[in-house]
Every structure is written in structure tokens, then in C-alpha cells.
Design brief:
Strand content: under 5%
Helix content: over 70%
Number of strands: 0
CATH superfamily: Heme oxygenase-like
CATH topology: Heme Oxygenase, Chain A
Number of helices: 10
Bound molecules: fe (ii) ion
CATH class: Mainly Alpha
Number of domains: 1
Order of helices and strands: HHHHHHHHHH
Length: about 230
């Protein structure tokens, strides 16, 4: 098997890794599903900024196609954070009920480092487990949750189960065309993303992170109040 075929095969493995902790996730419970939606909202909130950052890092001669792909994706991701927030609202909850977890921050903050250090192909890899998860694994989860929580609380899932069929297919075709020397970066993005997402899913519905989260927000709030006083 050549390395390009290896990376294509790893794309499916990364989907399985991302799905690892779903079997222990009791999404039928309103508060657990609420946490899933809130953490999704927290990281999706950064997705357009991340896409803009990666698009700006493209070389316009060598990475012209990627540059325009990322801008197209940026447009498609508009207001997806609000979609998750609306689902939460229809459950009678808000994102404030579920502060951003350490695992959520780990999931998206690492991405800025990877794009800065290895370039925009890291993002191509990073999205693959997410897109594969949405179109391969989550349609069954969606069907189950609609029956329990109602259609109005599952629009984020519905949209992504549908949208990501095309995105995942596109990503697999793209792997066949990208320069040989960028394949390692794509593979690294896939692996890191799948591992960190699995970590995040493991934390959903648990209370352990509150110990870390509470002081973090108190410090942030104090700093904001302090800055307002200075200004
Ligand atoms: Fe999205």
C-alpha cells in the first residue's frame, strides 16, 4: 500500500476513533445531550475564524485551490454555532448552563498551533474525522434523539448528517490530489483531531471539569472587570 492509500484508509480509522466514546454517552438524558450541544456550540463558535486563519496561510501559487476551498467552507459554516445554541434553547437550556470544558478548548486551540506551525493542510486533516462521523455514525444517533428530544432540538445534527456526506466525499477525493509532501500533515491533523474529539466525548455529562472550569471563569471575569475599571 502506498502512503496516499494509507492516508485514505486512515481517514476511516479516524472516524472510528472519534466515535469511540459515544457508546458510553447517554444522549437520551436531556442534561447530557445539553452538554453535548453546548460543547459543540463552544468549539463551532471558532470555526469560521479558524477557516479564515488557514485560508490566509495558503500560498496563492502553490495552494490556490485549497485557499478557495477554505473560503467556500467558511461561508457554509456561517451561524452553525447559533444552530447548536437554538437546539439548546428548544431543550429549555442555554450554553451558560454548561461552561466550556478543558477538553473543548484542547480540541480547537490546538488547531491554531497546527495551522501556524505546519500550514493549512493540517485543517484539511482535522475536519475529516468530524465529517466522517457526521455522515457515517451520527445518522443513527440522530434518529434516536429526534424521538426523545424532538426535531427542533436536533437541527444541528440533522444539518451535519446531511451536509457532511458531500464534505467527507470531497475530502476523500481531495486526498487523491494533494501534493505528496503534504500528506503527512493531513494524516497528523486527522489523528490529533480524532484523539482530542474522543477525549471531549469522554468528558461530556461528567462533572470533573467543573473544578478546573470554575476558577478559570472567575479569573477571566475578574480580568474583564479590572480592564473595564482601567478604561
Ligand atoms: Fe458546521
Amino acid at each position: 500500500m502506498n502512503f496516499r492509500d494509507r492516508v485514505s484508509k486512515d481517514a476511516y480509522t479516524s472516524v472510528d476513533v472519534a466515535f469511540t466514546n459515544y457508546e458510553n454517552l447517554n444522549l437520551e438524558d436531556k442534561m447530557v445531550y445539553g452538554d453535548w450541544l453546548a460543547q459543540t456550540h463552544h468549539y463551532v463558535h471558532h470555526v469560521t475564524r479558524i477557516l479564515a486563519f488557514a485560508a490566509a496561510k495558503c500560498d496563492l501559487y502553490q495552494e490556490r485551490e485549497l485557499h478557495f476551498r477554505l473560503i467556500k467552507a467558511l461561508n457554509e459554516e456561517k451561524n452553525h454555532d447559533i444552530m447548536a445554541a437554538n437546539d439548546l434553547k428548544n431543550l429549555g437550556l442555554t450554553a451558560e448552563h454548561f461552561p466550556e470544558r478543558m477538553e473543548t478548548r484542547n480540541f480547537y486551540q490546538v488547531l491554531f498551533y497546527m495551522i501556524e506551525t505546519y500550514g493549512p493542510y493540517a485543517l484539511v486533516g482535522y475536519f475529516i474525522p468530524q465529517e466522517g462521523l457526521s455522515c457515517i455514525k451520527l445518522p443513527d444517533v440522530y434518529k434516536r434523539l429526534v424521538e426523545i428530544h424532538g426535531k427542533k432540538s436536533c437541527t444541528f445534527l440533522m444539518e451535519h448528517c446531511e451536509l457532511d456526506i458531500e464534505h467527507f466525499g470531497d475530502a476523500l477525493s481531495f486526498i487523491k490530489t494533494i501534493p505528496e509532501n503534504k500528506l503527512t500533515i493531513v494524516q497528523m491533523g486527522m489523528t490529533r483531531s480524532a484523539e482530542l474529539y474522543a477525549d471531549l466525548m469522554k468528558s461530556i455529562g461528567t462533572t470533573e471539569d467543573q473544578i478546573l472550569t470554575t476558577p478559570y471563569w472567575n479569573i477571566a471575569k475578574t480580568k474583564m472587570e479590572f480592564n473595564q475599571t482601567i478604561l
